[in-house]
Amino acid sequence: MAIAMLGLTSAKAQVNLGVRGGFNITEMSFNEEVFDTSNRLGFFVGPVLKFSLPFPNLGLDIAGYYDQRDMKIDDETITQKSIIVPANLRLNIGFSDMAGIYLAAGPQISFNIGDDKYSWKDWDANKEQVDNTFRLKNSVFSVNLGGGVNLGRYEIGVNYNIGVSNTADVKSFKDVTDTAYDKRKAKTNTWQIHGTIYF
Q1: Concatenated DSSP letters of 47-114
Q2: 101-127 residues labelled b (16+ CB within 10 A) or e (exposed)
Q3: Is 165 helix (H, G, I), strand (E, B) or coil?
Q4: Which residue ranges form the domains of the chain, and what is each CATH number?
Q5: CA-based diameter of the chain, in Å?
Q6: Parallel, antiparallel, or unpaired: how do β-strands 168-174 and 37-38 relate?
Q7: Which residues neighbour 2 within 8 Å (Cβ) at sequence distance 6 or greater?
Q8: Mean local confidence (pLDDT), 68-72
């Protein structure tokens, strides 16, 4: 989509380079309610390119972020480090030359660059030991929906990132008379609050 949109830009299209950073609140969900999870805070920062398109009020931004987030599962904290590449189509609504709002939506792919496997032990309600393994995927596809306010060179926005592919596989193994083995798929949705300055 990004390549197609860039192909439509003309020599008159305006291109802005900036830096965006912000915080994310991560919520992890499983296909079955087995693990105790909670919201965790993280951050992201990186360069962003904003293009105007040869269509009224439409634009495109493409970014590359370093993203770090914590996810708490049971009593274990998992730290995920990624390179994230979103490409969002923007609808710009201007109130003046210096102020307006925008709506944005588009795909995002993230690449894991940190540890990909975590293991820990805990105990179930019957006081029996359980071995857990959490393995992060090498890449994850998701979709962004958001919007914000632009004030000249500055933007403030909020974004909701919806996990489409699985973030991780989680395995739980309990060695008792009746062996129990559970495997769960985890997806991650994230609220993001960010600020951008363009040069």
Answers
A1: EEEEEE-SSTTEEEEEE-EEEEEEEEETTEEEEEEEEEEEEEEEEEEESSSS-EEEEEEEEEEEEE-S
A2: ebebebbbbbebeeeeebeeeeeeeee
A3: coil
A4: 2-198 (2.40.160)
A5: 72
A6: unpaired
A7: 60, 62, 87
A8: 80
With a threshold of 0.85, does the pTM exceed it? no
Q: What is the chain's Cα-based Rg? A: 20
CB 191 within 8 A of CB 158: yes
Which tokens hold the place of 28? Answer: 């992890």
- Residues facing residue 37 across a β-bridge: 73
Token look-up 């083995």 returns: 181
Q: Count CA atoms closer than 13 A to 80's CA, side-chain side.
A: 31
How many angstroms from the chain centroid is the CA of residue 158? 12
CA distance 47 to 139: 20
- 55 has a pLDDT exceeding 70: yes
Residue 28's pLDDT band (cuts 50, 70, 90): low
